[in-house]
Design goal:
Elements lengths: L13 E6 L8 H9 L3 E6 L6 H4 L1 H13 L8 H9 L9 H20 L5 H5 L9 H21 L5 H6 L13 H19 L10 E3 L6 E3 H27 L3
Parallel strand pairs: 1-2
Antiparallel strand pairs: 3-4
Length: 250
Protein backbone atom coordinates (compact mmCIF):
# COMPACT_ATOMS: atom_id res chain seq x y z
CA UNK A 1 0.00 0.00 0.00
CA UNK A 2 2.21 2.87 -1.22
CA UNK A 3 1.67 6.10 0.71
CA UNK A 4 4.26 8.36 -0.94
CA UNK A 5 1.65 10.38 -2.80
CA UNK A 6 -0.11 11.18 0.49
CA UNK A 7 2.90 12.46 2.43
CA UNK A 8 2.30 16.07 1.41
CA UNK A 9 -0.84 16.01 3.57
CA UNK A 10 1.38 15.91 6.67
CA UNK A 11 2.06 19.46 7.80
CA UNK A 12 3.49 18.75 11.26
CA UNK A 13 7.25 18.90 11.80
CA UNK A 14 8.55 15.46 10.85
CA UNK A 15 11.74 13.60 11.64
CA UNK A 16 12.88 10.76 9.35
CA UNK A 17 15.46 8.45 10.92
CA UNK A 18 17.16 6.04 8.52
CA UNK A 19 20.07 3.65 8.62
CA UNK A 20 22.77 4.93 6.26
CA UNK A 21 23.68 1.33 5.37
CA UNK A 22 20.13 -0.04 5.15
CA UNK A 23 20.34 -3.16 2.92
CA UNK A 24 16.54 -3.62 2.79
CA UNK A 25 15.19 -0.18 1.86
CA UNK A 26 17.61 2.29 0.30
CA UNK A 27 18.30 5.54 2.21
CA UNK A 28 17.24 7.26 -1.00
CA UNK A 29 13.68 6.50 0.10
CA UNK A 30 14.20 8.84 3.07
CA UNK A 31 15.36 11.59 0.72
CA UNK A 32 12.30 11.14 -1.49
CA UNK A 33 10.02 11.22 1.56
CA UNK A 34 11.63 14.43 2.79
CA UNK A 35 10.97 16.05 -0.60
CA UNK A 36 7.27 15.18 -0.34
CA UNK A 37 6.82 16.33 3.26
CA UNK A 38 6.21 19.98 4.06
CA UNK A 39 8.41 20.30 7.16
CA UNK A 40 10.79 17.39 7.42
CA UNK A 41 14.42 16.58 7.96
CA UNK A 42 16.36 13.33 7.63
CA UNK A 43 18.64 12.04 10.36
CA UNK A 44 20.87 9.30 8.86
CA UNK A 45 22.49 7.01 11.43
CA UNK A 46 25.78 5.29 10.73
CA UNK A 47 27.00 2.67 10.87
CA UNK A 48 23.45 1.39 10.80
CA UNK A 49 21.35 -1.02 8.76
CA UNK A 50 17.60 -1.64 8.71
CA UNK A 51 16.88 -1.50 12.45
CA UNK A 52 18.08 1.80 13.96
CA UNK A 53 16.26 1.19 17.26
CA UNK A 54 18.27 -1.99 17.83
CA UNK A 55 21.52 -1.21 16.02
CA UNK A 56 22.06 2.37 17.25
CA UNK A 57 19.69 2.83 20.20
CA UNK A 58 21.64 5.67 21.81
CA UNK A 59 21.94 7.67 18.58
CA UNK A 60 18.27 6.94 17.81
CA UNK A 61 17.18 8.34 21.16
CA UNK A 62 19.47 11.36 20.82
CA UNK A 63 17.94 12.17 17.43
CA UNK A 64 14.40 11.99 18.81
CA UNK A 65 15.32 13.90 21.96
CA UNK A 66 16.85 16.72 19.93
CA UNK A 67 13.89 16.80 17.57
CA UNK A 68 11.35 16.98 20.39
CA UNK A 69 13.36 19.59 22.23
CA UNK A 70 13.21 21.89 19.21
CA UNK A 71 9.66 21.02 18.21
CA UNK A 72 7.32 23.98 17.91
CA UNK A 73 4.65 22.27 19.99
CA UNK A 74 6.89 21.21 22.85
CA UNK A 75 4.02 18.96 23.93
CA UNK A 76 6.14 15.87 24.52
CA UNK A 77 8.93 15.47 26.98
CA UNK A 78 12.03 14.13 25.26
CA UNK A 79 13.06 12.40 28.47
CA UNK A 80 10.02 10.11 28.12
CA UNK A 81 11.23 8.96 24.72
CA UNK A 82 14.67 8.49 26.26
CA UNK A 83 13.31 6.20 28.98
CA UNK A 84 11.15 4.15 26.62
CA UNK A 85 13.89 3.52 24.08
CA UNK A 86 16.98 3.32 26.28
CA UNK A 87 15.99 1.98 29.69
CA UNK A 88 16.17 -1.73 28.90
CA UNK A 89 17.65 -3.80 31.69
CA UNK A 90 20.52 -5.97 30.34
CA UNK A 91 20.05 -9.71 30.58
CA UNK A 92 21.74 -11.03 33.76
CA UNK A 93 25.34 -12.09 33.31
CA UNK A 94 25.86 -10.26 30.02
CA UNK A 95 27.66 -7.00 29.26
CA UNK A 96 25.28 -4.00 29.00
CA UNK A 97 25.11 -3.58 25.22
CA UNK A 98 24.99 -7.30 24.50
CA UNK A 99 22.59 -7.79 27.41
CA UNK A 100 20.04 -5.25 26.15
CA UNK A 101 19.79 -6.90 22.75
CA UNK A 102 19.78 -10.36 24.33
CA UNK A 103 16.89 -9.34 26.59
CA UNK A 104 14.84 -8.29 23.57
CA UNK A 105 15.59 -11.64 21.93
CA UNK A 106 14.80 -13.72 25.00
CA UNK A 107 11.61 -11.76 25.65
CA UNK A 108 10.45 -12.65 22.13
CA UNK A 109 11.26 -16.28 22.92
CA UNK A 110 9.25 -16.13 26.13
CA UNK A 111 6.30 -14.51 24.37
CA UNK A 112 6.45 -17.29 21.79
CA UNK A 113 6.10 -19.79 24.64
CA UNK A 114 3.14 -17.87 26.03
CA UNK A 115 1.17 -17.94 22.77
CA UNK A 116 1.44 -21.76 22.66
CA UNK A 117 0.01 -22.19 26.15
CA UNK A 118 -2.93 -24.60 26.18
CA UNK A 119 -2.33 -26.02 22.70
CA UNK A 120 -2.56 -29.77 22.12
CA UNK A 121 -0.51 -32.13 19.97
CA UNK A 122 -3.24 -32.03 17.32
CA UNK A 123 -3.11 -28.24 17.36
CA UNK A 124 0.62 -28.01 16.69
CA UNK A 125 0.48 -30.36 13.68
CA UNK A 126 -2.63 -28.73 12.15
CA UNK A 127 -2.17 -26.77 8.92
CA UNK A 128 -4.57 -24.06 7.72
CA UNK A 129 -4.18 -25.39 4.17
CA UNK A 130 -1.87 -27.58 2.13
CA UNK A 131 1.62 -26.15 2.01
CA UNK A 132 1.09 -23.85 4.99
CA UNK A 133 3.37 -24.25 8.02
CA UNK A 134 2.10 -25.84 11.20
CA UNK A 135 2.77 -24.34 14.61
CA UNK A 136 5.09 -27.26 15.39
CA UNK A 137 7.33 -26.60 12.40
CA UNK A 138 7.36 -22.86 13.18
CA UNK A 139 8.51 -23.55 16.74
CA UNK A 140 11.35 -25.73 15.48
CA UNK A 141 12.28 -22.98 13.02
CA UNK A 142 12.63 -20.56 15.94
CA UNK A 143 15.15 -22.88 17.55
CA UNK A 144 16.84 -23.82 14.29
CA UNK A 145 17.48 -20.18 13.37
CA UNK A 146 19.39 -19.62 16.62
CA UNK A 147 21.30 -22.89 16.20
CA UNK A 148 22.39 -21.99 12.67
CA UNK A 149 23.64 -18.52 13.59
CA UNK A 150 25.37 -19.82 16.70
CA UNK A 151 27.24 -22.66 14.99
CA UNK A 152 27.62 -21.67 11.34
CA UNK A 153 28.30 -17.95 11.76
CA UNK A 154 29.50 -17.14 15.25
CA UNK A 155 31.42 -20.33 16.09
CA UNK A 156 32.28 -21.09 12.47
CA UNK A 157 31.51 -24.82 12.48
CA UNK A 158 28.90 -27.07 10.95
CA UNK A 159 25.86 -27.88 13.05
CA UNK A 160 26.39 -31.37 14.54
CA UNK A 161 24.23 -34.07 12.93
CA UNK A 162 22.42 -34.85 16.17
CA UNK A 163 21.37 -31.22 16.56
CA UNK A 164 20.40 -30.76 12.91
CA UNK A 165 18.18 -33.85 13.16
CA UNK A 166 16.73 -32.60 16.42
CA UNK A 167 15.65 -29.35 14.75
CA UNK A 168 14.47 -30.89 11.49
CA UNK A 169 17.03 -29.29 9.18
CA UNK A 170 16.45 -31.90 6.46
CA UNK A 171 12.63 -31.81 6.73
CA UNK A 172 11.68 -28.24 7.72
CA UNK A 173 8.27 -28.58 6.07
CA UNK A 174 7.19 -31.45 8.37
CA UNK A 175 5.37 -30.78 11.61
CA UNK A 176 7.01 -32.87 14.35
CA UNK A 177 4.74 -35.01 16.49
CA UNK A 178 5.85 -33.42 19.72
CA UNK A 179 3.84 -31.65 22.36
CA UNK A 180 4.01 -27.84 22.55
CA UNK A 181 5.92 -28.12 25.84
CA UNK A 182 8.58 -30.33 24.25
CA UNK A 183 8.94 -27.99 21.28
CA UNK A 184 9.24 -24.92 23.50
CA UNK A 185 11.85 -26.80 25.52
CA UNK A 186 13.84 -27.31 22.32
CA UNK A 187 13.67 -23.56 21.58
CA UNK A 188 14.77 -22.81 25.15
CA UNK A 189 17.68 -25.24 24.82
CA UNK A 190 18.89 -23.51 21.63
CA UNK A 191 18.68 -20.12 23.32
CA UNK A 192 20.46 -21.48 26.38
CA UNK A 193 23.40 -22.64 24.29
CA UNK A 194 23.54 -19.26 22.60
CA UNK A 195 23.33 -17.43 25.93
CA UNK A 196 26.34 -19.38 27.20
CA UNK A 197 28.30 -18.19 24.16
CA UNK A 198 27.17 -14.60 24.74
CA UNK A 199 28.45 -14.70 28.33
CA UNK A 200 31.99 -14.82 26.94
CA UNK A 201 31.43 -11.70 24.81
CA UNK A 202 31.81 -8.00 25.62
CA UNK A 203 30.23 -4.89 24.12
CA UNK A 204 33.33 -4.53 21.94
CA UNK A 205 32.23 -7.70 20.14
CA UNK A 206 29.00 -6.04 18.97
CA UNK A 207 30.83 -4.40 16.08
CA UNK A 208 32.98 -7.43 15.30
CA UNK A 209 32.31 -8.95 11.89
CA UNK A 210 31.37 -12.61 11.45
CA UNK A 211 31.23 -14.52 8.17
CA UNK A 212 29.42 -17.78 7.47
CA UNK A 213 31.72 -20.44 6.03
CA UNK A 214 31.58 -20.31 2.23
CA UNK A 215 29.97 -16.87 2.17
CA UNK A 216 31.46 -13.48 1.36
CA UNK A 217 28.94 -11.56 3.49
CA UNK A 218 30.12 -10.27 6.86
CA UNK A 219 27.71 -9.20 9.59
CA UNK A 220 28.35 -7.72 13.00
CA UNK A 221 27.15 -9.41 16.17
CA UNK A 222 24.85 -6.40 16.67
CA UNK A 223 23.26 -6.97 13.26
CA UNK A 224 22.91 -10.71 13.87
CA UNK A 225 21.21 -10.19 17.22
CA UNK A 226 18.82 -7.68 15.65
CA UNK A 227 18.02 -10.13 12.86
CA UNK A 228 17.34 -12.91 15.37
CA UNK A 229 14.98 -10.63 17.30
CA UNK A 230 13.10 -9.79 14.12
CA UNK A 231 12.93 -13.43 12.96
CA UNK A 232 11.64 -14.65 16.32
CA UNK A 233 9.02 -11.90 16.40
CA UNK A 234 7.91 -12.86 12.89
CA UNK A 235 7.54 -16.51 13.88
CA UNK A 236 5.60 -15.53 16.98
CA UNK A 237 3.23 -13.50 14.79
CA UNK A 238 2.64 -16.47 12.48
CA UNK A 239 1.92 -18.72 15.46
CA UNK A 240 -0.60 -16.20 16.78
CA UNK A 241 -2.38 -16.07 13.41
CA UNK A 242 -2.63 -19.87 13.18
CA UNK A 243 -3.87 -20.02 16.76
CA UNK A 244 -6.65 -17.60 15.87
CA UNK A 245 -7.56 -19.81 12.92
CA UNK A 246 -7.64 -22.82 15.23
CA UNK A 247 -10.08 -21.03 17.49
CA UNK A 248 -12.38 -20.33 14.56
CA UNK A 249 -12.52 -23.87 13.18
CA UNK A 250 -15.46 -25.08 15.19
Amino acid sequence: HPVGHRLARITAPTLIIWGADDPVVSPLAATRAREELTRARVEPLEPCGHLPTFEQPEAFVDAIDGFLSHSASGALDGSIAMRIAADVEPWPGLSPGVGRLARRLFEQRDTLAEVTDGLTLDDVIWRPHEGAPAIGSLLLQAGAAVVRVHHEVLVGSAVPDEISTRFGFSTPELAPRKSPNRLIAEVAWAHGQFESWLRERTDADLNRGFTRDGSTETHTLRWLLCQMIEDTAAIRGKVEVIRQMLAGRG
